[in-house]
Structures are given as C-alpha cells and as structure tokens.
C-alpha cells in the first residue's frame, strides 16, 4: 500500500513561496515582506513561516540574516540539488533552456556511469537489457524502460552521487521522456542504443559502453531540440506514469 500523507503546514508554505519565487512574484535579489506581513498574507502562523523559510534557506532559495530582510538568492548559482528537484517538479514553469541544459549534463555523466557499470557489474546490466527486444513500441514503454535503465546504471556504477543527481529530476524525467519518445526516430535510436549497450555488457567492454552511451546522449539532445521547439516548453503529455 502506498501512503501519501498530507503536507505539513510548513511544507505547504514552502511550496507556495517557491512558486512565488519561480513565477517572479519575488524576483532574484528582491527582499521578502516582513515576517508578520508575509505570515498574514499566506494565512499561516509566524512559527510555521519561520520553518518554511529555514527550509528555503537550506536549499539556497533565500538568504536569512537575523534583524535584516530575507533576500531571494540567485538560486541558479547558489542553490543545491533541492532547487533542482523543486524546479523539476514544476514542469509547467520551466525556463526554455532547462531541459536542454539537463540533457547536456546527462550527456556528460551518462558515459561515465555506463562505463563503470559495465566494468563493475556487467551481468546485472545484461539481465536488465535482455528483455528490450520485446519492448513495446510506445512512448510510455520507452519512457519507463529508459528511466529504469539509467537509474540502474547509476547504481551499478558504484558512485551514489550519480544516483542522487538523477533522482533529483525523477518527477520531470517521465513527462520529458514521453514527449521525446513520441518521435519514432527517437525510439529507434534508443532501441539501437539498448542493443549496443547489451553487446558491450555481454562482452565486458567498458570502452564500448562509454562510446555508445556518449553517442546516443549527443543524439538525444539534437532530437529533443527538433521534437520540442524552444517556445513549446510545456511537458503535458498523454503518456501516463
């Protein structure tokens, strides 16, 4: 049974403040209203607001100094993985270059974790990739398979930082992948990647795994830009998780 407990008041307030920051109501460099005023406007108690602000300060959204106004930080430069996760969960408010930048980062990381995975535990990767020949030719099937593959690759790499970074945009990955895999060309390219990566794992060839992964990651960035124009950044899709 999956439990979905209701958010605590401080978590709700935190989410509302993040929305306000991302949507530009509290721009980078601006100061938030005084604590009493802000708590009143949000309909929360001052202790609840303080807890929410402490959460925001922890992740790099705001800068808090006792006796001074709370300043909205340049979260793109001062934030951490918590900021990445929060932005990724708000797929309707993504900057135009967010997904391409994310794909570029994956392009840099994926060859490294694929190489390590084949080097360390090729047999587990073979078991994951073997069923790909029967993979249903739909965006949904490819979106699920692709996430599970990359997540496993990070785990098998032995470096948990890869996994933490990937998990940071887990909620964005599915709608993003659904849009990407609406392209028959993208599905065919990835199916070829899965086949070649399987061959590399079966041969125990880390160099082949690295080169194959780098090639498909480069192609995926090009295919994304072709499939989703920069002005169309909504990740709405009929593909269900």
What is the secondary structure topology, with strand pairs?
Layout: H1 9-22, H2 35-42, H3 46-59, E1 62-63, E2 71-72, H4 75-78, H5 81-88, H6 98-120, H7 122-129, H8 139-157, H9 160-167, H10 170-180, H11 184-203, H12 206-227
Antiparallel strand pairs: 1-2
Helix pairs in contact: 1-3, 2-3, 6-8, 6-12, 7-8, 7-11, 8-9, 8-10, 11-12
Architecture overview:
By secondary structure, the chain is mainly alpha-helical. The protein folds into two domains: 9-79, Arc Repressor Mutant, subunit A (Orthogonal Bundle), CATH 1.10.10; 92-227, Four Helix Bundle (Hemerythrin (Met), subunit A) (Up-down Bundle). It contains twelve helices and two strands. The protein has helices at residues 9-22, 35-42, 46-59, 75-78, 81-88, 98-120, 122-129, 139-157, 160-167, 170-180, 184-203, 206-227, and strands spanning 62-63, 71-72. The chain has a two-stranded antiparallel ribbon with strand order 1-2. Strand 1 (62-63) and strand 2 (71-72) form a beta hairpin. Helix 7 (122-129) packs antiparallel against helix 11 (184-203) and helix 8 (139-157) packs antiparallel against helix 9. The radius of gyration is 21 Å and the shape is elongated.
Summarize the structure.
The chain is mostly helical. The protein folds into two domains: 9-79, Winged helix-like DNA-binding domain superfamily/Winged helix DNA-binding domain (Arc Repressor Mutant, subunit A, Orthogonal Bundle), CATH 1.10.10.10; 92-227, Four Helix Bundle (Hemerythrin (Met), subunit A). The chain is built from twelve helices and two strands.
């Amino acid at each position: 049974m999956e439990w979905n407990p209701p958010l605590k008041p401080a978590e709700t307030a935190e989410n509302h403040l993040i929305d306000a920051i991302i949507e530009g109501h509290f721009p980078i460099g601006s100061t938030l209203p005084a604590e009493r005023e802000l708590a009143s406007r949000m309909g929360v108690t001052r202790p609840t607001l303080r807890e929410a602000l402490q959460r925001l300060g922890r992740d790099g959204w705001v800068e808090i100094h006792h006796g001074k106004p709370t300043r909205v930080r340049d979260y793109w430069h001062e934030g951490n993985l918590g900021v990445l996760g929060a932005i990724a969960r708000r797929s309707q408010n993504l900057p135009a270059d967010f997904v391409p930048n994310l794909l570029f980062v994956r392009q840099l990381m994926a060859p490294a974790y694929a190489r390590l995975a084949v080097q360390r535990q090729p047999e587990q990767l073979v078991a994951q990739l073997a069923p790909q020949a029967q993979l249903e030719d739909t965006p949904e099937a490819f979106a699920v398979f692709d996430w599970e593959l990359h997540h496993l690759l990070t785990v098998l790499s032995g470096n948990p930082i890869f996994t933490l970074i990937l998990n940071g945009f887990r909620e964005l990955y599915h709608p993003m992948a659904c849009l990407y895999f609406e392209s028959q060309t993208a599905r065919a390219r990835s199916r070829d990647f899965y086949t070649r990566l399987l061959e590399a794992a079966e041969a125990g060839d880390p160099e082949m795994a690295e080169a194959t992964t780098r090639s498909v990651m480069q192609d995926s960035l090009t295919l994304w830009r072709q499939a989703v124009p920069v002005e169309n950044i909504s990740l709405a899709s009929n593909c269900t998780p």
